[in-house]
Amino acid sequence: MAINVMIGSVSIPLVDLLGIISQRVTESTSGFIVWKIRLPRAIAAVLGGSFLAISGLLLQVFFRNPIVGPFILGISSGATLMVAVVMLSTLSLGMPALNPFFSTLAALMGAYGAMILILTIATRVRSGVTLLITGLMLGYLCHALTSVLVAFAEREKIKGFVLWQLGSFAGFKWLEIGILFLAGGVILIAVYGLSKPLNAFLLGEEYASTMGVNIRLFRFLILLCACALAGMVTAVAGPVAFVGLAVPHMARLCFATSDNRVLVPGTILLGGTITSLCDLVARWLFSPVELPISAITAFFGAPMVISLLMKRRTFL
Questions:
Q1: Would you state the pLDDT for residue 44?
Q2: N or C, where is the chain less crowded by C-beta within 10 Å?
């Protein structure tokens, strides 16, 4: 995280960085860069990566499937659809200055709208496979509607929408950081409190039920936490791929355990670290041109997913 703040088009030595942070220097050029641009972005990358990684861990436990990610249930597609409605139509009412506000609000509505639908279905069906297929179909439906909107949109509006779809932690404000930290922090604490039931759930629903776990409520809480974390990140940063899919497996390999009392904090740490590293590569590799962070996470995540598919029996 410190490296992410230090490196860029303007390099800031570690000694200067510590002085700027400890003395809250904002008047100088370096102070402005640290406090207004790089530090919020670095914190957002750490929080976003942690949230997506935990979301992926929860869903992999829920479905007992090693290749399930946080957006498999249509959360990302729902957010993308609502952003497309705002950015590609006239809902901004001719007020371009409010577009970022409308886009974030629309993404939040789309993500949590998809989450509510999935949670409603989850209360009616017990089969994880049925729920998984429903999420995939919801994603395809949202993607189809988004494609229709793109087909009728103006070229200038399509450009802005495509840039949003690439995902980025740039432009975060301290208010957004505070909201992410408070709301996401509460959910992460709740997830850690579910560590023991998660361990029991790994051995099957019948075993978890004999251990006193309320299966129906527990399934609801897993989906609620996973979808809420993924929806929160998608709303403010756009779709960020592969982090939730690959990081939980890295945590299992690094800590050599399936105990969620270890995996939950370990996944939080690895998710924040890896996403921060990917964000650094995205903005530094071809500076001043900034690469989409989803491209970097895909370069990182795709080999991991392929290796998991080749060694699938190891993880099932």
A1: 95
A2: C
